[in-house]
Amino acid sequence: MMREPDFVDECYADKDLSLLKKLTLVIPTYNRNYYLSRCLWYHAHFPFGEIIVADSSPEEKKVVNRETVAKVREMFGANVRYLAYEPETEKYGGDIYRKWGDAVQHVETEYSQICTDKEFQIVTTLCKCIHYLESHLDYTVAGGGRYHLEFRQKRSYTLTSFAGTIVDKDGWKRLQQFISSSGFTLLSIHRSKKHKEIYLNMICNNQDDLRFGEVYLDLLDVIFGKIYNILDLAITYRDQLTFNQTNSFSQKNQESSSFRYQVIWAYPNSEFDSKWTDFKNGIRESLFQEFPDDLCDIEHNLEPLLQHWLNIRLTRPNPIRKPLRIIYQICPDSLKLFFQKVFIQRLNPKKYFPIDENNPEVKLICQIIETFQWV
Fold first, then answer.
1. Model confidence over 148-179: pLDDT tens digits?
2. For residue 207, what are the CA distances in angstroms to 162, 201, 258, 295, 362?
3. What CA–CA distance (Å, rounded) separates 140 from 217?
4. Residue 52 has what pLDDT?
5. Residues with pLDDT less than 70, the chain
6. Which distant-in-sequence residues (6+ apart) come within 8 Å of 165 by Cβ?
7. CA 375, CA 246: separation in Å to the nearest integer?
8. What is the pLDDT, as a whole number, of residue 330?
9. pLDDT of residue 141
10. InterPro entries per the record (predicted)?
């Protein structure tokens, strides 16, 4: 089926995106037909080497997703591979990252990136990241700013959290730098060979937990290689609240893993202790294997460092957090901006900014979020 150029094509008409042929996007999805269709429709405009859909939805949802994949292949001529998995059933979500890891093992291109089904990649930034990795062979991960689009009466705000570039030759020192900079690499571009090794390491070291697993994968990235981040460019925009056709705003999707699974601070003590032990032992063994000369320093300092990082990254509850959140939610936008500047940016590594309405790539994504209908 021939397709007429649309506003996405027009936005990127003068851009050289040929480096995307070296990248595979892995899109995990669960029970969200609409978000997957929108995600595939957007990314199929671009010349990715391959797009892999890792679908663990119930069977009736899988039927719809297979139809979507077939339609995208026909409409765009996109190279989309569909992988089916059993629905996730484990109490602590360990099967989620095993699904991700299995999908990554299917990657055939030089680079790979996880892209969740509510996200939009900024393809010009992806090309810059790939170009950097092509010319800096000692780096294994590259990324940029990750922004969450939060719509309020068609006005948008963004937040981002990412590490700076981590360049030390010693992985133990890189780990310390990464934690001090509040980093995040899970959804960045990876060299596929290392990406596969990291997920295999996770499985071999008994990481069967969604929350600990997220942090574990980030830290392995830093242990195994240098990290490059383009500090002034966004790599991903994520739809946090969706504007719908009735001019109202939907709540965050309850099928998100953020809502389906407990936070670690709510685990029974015995369960937390067991998973914490597996987590720190896996990180320790990975460090020992890579950097045996740092063994004494690692043994002495690793545990308090990891405890500190979990408290920050997985947000240990604060007794005043809930009442402050309620007050914040009912404030007018002007007061929210004040609170963001005075409190949130000082107390939280995430930063909040007004959206740049003059950025054509962001305007394009906002337009898709507000108007997309799969025909």
1. 887 655 555 565 555 678 888 888 999 998 88
2. 23, 9, 18, 22, 36
3. 13
4. 99
5. 1-2, 151-163, 182, 241-259, 317-322, 324-325, 328, 336-337, 339-354, 375
6. 226, 227, 228, 229, 231
7. 18
8. 77
9. 96
10. Glyco_TIGR04440 (IPR031042), Nucleotide-diphossugar_trans (IPR029044)
CA angle 2, 53, 133 (to 5 degrees): 95
Q: For position 251, what pLDDT does the model report? A: 44
246: tokens are 């009735």
Which amino acid appears at position 228 of this protein? Answer: Y
Residue 243's DSSP bridge partners are 249
CA dihedral 371, 340, 144, 367 (to 10 degrees): 10
For the packed helices 210-224 and 295-313, what is the interaxial angle rounded to 10 degrees?
130
Domain residue spans in the chain? 7-258+353-371
Q: What one-character DSSP code corresponds to residue 145?
A: E
Residues near 312 by Cβ (< 8 Å), separated by ≥ 6? 182, 349
Cβ within 8 Å of residue 182, ≥6 positions away: 161, 163, 312, 313, 349
pLDDT at 259: 63
CA pair distance 316, 116, nearest whole angstrom: 25
Q: In the block, which residue shows the tokens 């981590």?
A: 166
CB atoms within 10 A of CB 128: 18
Six-digit token pair at 118? 């509510």
Q: Which residues of 50-63 are buried (b: 16+ CB within 10 A; e: fewer)?
A: bbbbbbbbeeebbe
Tokens found for residue 290: 């890579």
Which residues, in sequence order, are bridge partners of residue 125? none
Q: From CA 50, how far away is CA 112, in angstroms rounded?
A: 9
Q: Are 147 and 234 in contact (CB under 8 A)?
A: yes
**pLDDT of res. 46:** 98
Nearest Cα to Cα of residue 6 among 370, 346, 367, 369: 367
Phi, psi of 108 (to 5 degrees): -115, -10
Which of the four CATH numbers 3.40.190.10, 3.60.160.10, 3.40.50.300, 3.90.550.10 does domain 7-258+353-371 have? 3.90.550.10
Q: Which amino acid is at 68?
A: T
Cα-Cα-Cα-Cα torsion 51, 56, 58, 61, nearest 10 degrees, comes to -10
